[in-house]
Amino acid sequence: MMGTHWSINAFITPDKTATQAGLAIRAAMAEVSRIEMIASEWQADSELSRLNRRAGAGPLPISIELFEILELSKEVSEASHGAFDVSFYGVGSLWQFKPGSAPPTDAEILEKLALVDHTKIKLDKNAGTASLLLRGMAIGLGGVAKGYAVDRAVAVMRAHGFRDVIVEGGGDVYLSGSKGDTAWHVGIQDPQRNGAVGKLDVRDQAVVTSGNYQRFFEHEGTKYAHILDPRTGHPVPYERSPRSVSVIAQDTARADAYATALAVMGVARGIEFAANTPELEALMIDAAGAVHVTPGLKKRFEPLGP
């Protein structure tokens, strides 16, 4: 779902059965599927696609779920000064990060870049509507909807009486409760090395990891990774793009959005930003393989290996 692999693990306490856990997991997966039908820009009949088609034509009534996702997206867009911006999709759709691709022209990028502006997304809470003020602008929720779906799946598991669970969707993980008397352990991997560079003990928090190694293409000697800077319309230059960004937060949707923002900011600015943002911690691996962590995370991060 959402273009990636999903998994749910539940620690079964003596008062629960594996059958009950299986039913809860099925319900949680169904909730992920429901959110996908609301927030996917890839499905023509999704709620988000209908909103995109209505750009410049006035407000559209939307679900509570889509309203919450857009509200959080605008908050992160503002806080990150546009390093994260869900209205990037117009220019983002010009890029295809797969082998054999070629970059769009500067003229194409400039034309679409004029439509990237999160302040032109208007939300009316009383009316329950959203509107895109510029004709042709488009929203893409790939940097936040997956995290939101993880949070919704966790809520479903808890509603079924399972609080000790791990829900994971394509690198977005929420760790609820514990594994009996033991905290959940999360390994942080360097994508260019075997094994983990370190681990974290986590309880009731999200850990979201993204990197420049998952989707990219090379063209005329230049490597282009999929992390797009919404302010320029171009990918972050590969040579200064972090190998990996891990963000720890209280909810997965927020961690998902900020992981994108920090990747765009780069290591030095990203670590500084996370350190000064309440309830946010980060670990970033730079292009040379050095590990950088926010001060608040140092006491929880246990390095492994050489």
List the helices and strands and how they pair.
Elements: E1 6-10, H1 18-39, H2 47-53, E2 60-61, H3 64-79, H4 89-92, H5 106-113, E3 121-124, E4 129-132, H6 145-159, E5 165-169, E6 172-176, E7 184-189, E8 196-202, E9 205-211, E10 216-219, E11 222-225, E12 244-249, H7 252-265, H8 267-275, E13 280-285, E14 291-293, E15 301-303
Structural summary, described in words:
- It is a single chain.
- The chain is an alpha+beta fold and 306 residues long.
- 31% of the residues lie in helices and 23% in strands.
- The protein has helices spanning 18-39, 47-53, 64-79, 89-92, 106-113, 145-159, 252-265, 267-275; strands at residues 6-10, 60-61, 121-124, 129-132, 165-169, 172-176, 184-189, 196-202, 205-211, 216-219, 222-225, 244-249, 280-285, 291-293, 301-303.
- Strand 10 and strand 11 form a beta hairpin.
- The longest helix has 22 residues, at 18-39.
- It starts with 5 loop residues before the first strand and ends with a strand.
